[in-house]
Amino acid sequence: MKIATYNVNGVNGRLPVLLRWLNETAPDVACLQELKAPPEKFPEQAIRDAGYHPIWHGQKSWNGVAILSRIGEPKEIRRTLPGDPEDIHSRYIEAEINNITIGCLYLPNGNPAPGPKFDYKLNWFKRLTAHAKELLAAKTPVVLTGDYNVMPTELDVYKPERWVDDALFRPETREAFRNLRDQGWTDAIRKLYPDEKIYTFWDYFRNAYGRDAGLRIDHFLLSPQLESRLVAGGVDRNVRGWEKSSDHAPVWIELTD
């Protein structure tokens, strides 16, 4: 079972790129972030024509998450992260596919930090951590994947000294990710590549992609039931070089049945 995550940075504006990637790599499940489209503007028919059953949670101009499956209809569990009924941002959606619970998330950026946006990021992290604890308690296979907007270690960022005050790399953010992971989750890409420089995002500015000045901010966390089933994973970094592509590249893992 191949599961991928991809921050598309605008699902309609980059639909040709998304469809080309789906056609060329054929993940069984694809989790998307930053749809930047209200629910009624999601390109449902194009996705279905590509062979995928979608569920989505959109929002005008900002945020937005979706789960696409080509191995049957996703059984939607929830489309909000528990803990704050007044939070209207479209940042989380969860479904069951092939007996695996898949949570697709777009964690807040948090800049400028410190400030209200950074506070929101840390509070969202606390809510995610609380929900993740409940998911682990159920003792069922779970994948939590998406754009976490955090570089966990210095290995995950080009020239870390330039990012010390950024919300994606501040100590509070890395500690929040570490607290989440230490509940018993496995960082899939780091398990496969413990010492390698791997990036999933390259800014549009200063030829970041050409210089390989990137960040690893798109992650897979696996529950204990899935750790032994992890057999492969990687980043489709060539997609970042396609014309009119997102500033993120797709990330994927493979699990044995």
From TrEMBL:
Signal peptide: none annotated. Its cofactor is Mg(2+); Mn(2+). The active site is at residues 106, 147, 248. Keywords: Hydrolase, Magnesium, Manganese, Metal-binding. This is Exodeoxyribonuclease-3. It comes from the Bacteria. The record marks 218 as: Important for catalytic activity. The record marks 248 as: Interaction with DNA substrate. The keyword Nucleotide-binding does not apply.
